[in-house]
Amino acid sequence: MKDTLGREIDYMRISITDRCNLHCRYCMPEVQEPVSHEEILRYEEILRICKGAVELGIHKFKITGGEPLVRKGAVDFIGRLKMLPGVKYVTLTTNGTLLYKEIGGLKKAGLDGVNISIDAVSPQVYQKITGRNAFQEAEKALYACVKSGLQTRINTVLLDENETEWLKLAAFAGQMPVDVRFIELMPIGCAGKASGPSVDYVYEMLKERYEDLHMAADRHGNGPAVYFKSKMLAGSIGFIGANSHRFCSRCNRIRLTSTGELKPCLSYEESISLRKMIRNGADDIQLKNGIKQAILAKPAAHCFSGAEGITERRPMNQIGG
Ligand code: SAM
Ligand code: SF4
């Protein structure tokens, strides 16, 4: 359905857990009480919400977290979601460290694509950012995903501390048909502990390496990334400039947190508690109205340029990115 500004909202990000086996400095607080299991939506509850969302024209879903693959039954849940009538695309975003052994199951479940978050290739830098020496696990899953034919993307958050890594990460798109996407650090949660450049800065660096870098004619993916190609690349390079190239006028999404809060916009704390509605006995029509209400509450734009306007206090691992 359309929001009040005429934007077609057809995409929902679903966080299925706040837990994670990594501890990226810009995402997870050093000390954090995990959300209690009772507060986390059960798979049945998420599927009920998705059924309502599909009826409102939401056909694309991204499964996220925390780290979605730490939750038991995640692969089976993805299969059930993909089988819901009207669901067209289900994709997953993961840090990749638990992915390798799940690839076969995810393909069988009908997963349409996977984004693997990798912020560094050098084990030392990877460990400094994520708190664990796990690059090799993510890399192994990356190669296996591409080999399996799953549409695969790499997500890299731009940080001052991974500048040495950008060209090495871009090189994956030279080796194989993956999109490597560079994402500006968004000022949410504990991102204040880190800082990073704009996508334009990185574009200039990559342009020196890939002289014929040019904007791709086709738009791909569900979101705001702008893609570039080169004859030296089998895949492409994407840029998500959430701060420097605000794309809110093309926003197509809402976000469901693991505790069942439906968020109209990333930067504001405002949300509709679908968990409370479900557990207070809402029927399907009431639930659908709750989803509609969140879509109609979407603001015109985020407020990342003025930190005082940001009212979202939850860390990113609780929201899902
Ligand atoms: N654990 C999974 C992963 O890392 O892909 C899924 C959850 S994670 C919150 C989803 C995405 O959000 C990741 O690509 C992560 O790098 C990104 N992210 C987290 N905090 C961010 C921030 N402050 N700014 C930009 N991206 C962020
Ligand atoms: Fe975990 Fe993903 Fe956040 Fe890193 S970005 S701490 S992998 S949820």
From TrEMBL:
Start and end of every Radical SAM core domain? Answer: 4-224
Gene3D superfamilies linked to this entry:
Aldolase class I
**Claim: 4Fe-4S is one of the keywords in the record:** yes
Q: What class of enzyme is it?
A: lyase
Claim: 4Fe-4S is one of the keywords in the record: yes
Q: Which GO terms describe its molecular function?
A: 4 iron, 4 sulfur cluster binding; cyclic pyranopterin monophosphate synthase activity; GTP 3',8'-cyclase activity; GTP binding; metal ion binding
Any GO BP: Mo-molybdopterin cofactor biosynthetic process
Q: Which domain of life is it from?
A: Bacteria
Q: What is this protein called?
A: GTP 3',8-cyclase MoaA
Q: Which Pfam families match?
A: Mob_synth_C, Radical_SAM
| Annotated keywords | 4Fe-4S, GTP-binding, Iron, Iron-sulfur, Lyase, Metal-binding, Molybdenum cofactor biosynthesis, Nucleotide-binding, S-adenosyl-L-methionine
UniProt cross-references to InterPro entries, sorted A to Z: Aldolase_TIM, Elp3/MiaA/NifB-like_rSAM, MoaA, MoaA-like, MoaA_twitch, MoCo_biosynth_MoaA/MoaC, rSAM, rSAM_sf
The catalytic activity of this protein is classed by the Enzyme Commission as: 4.1.99.22
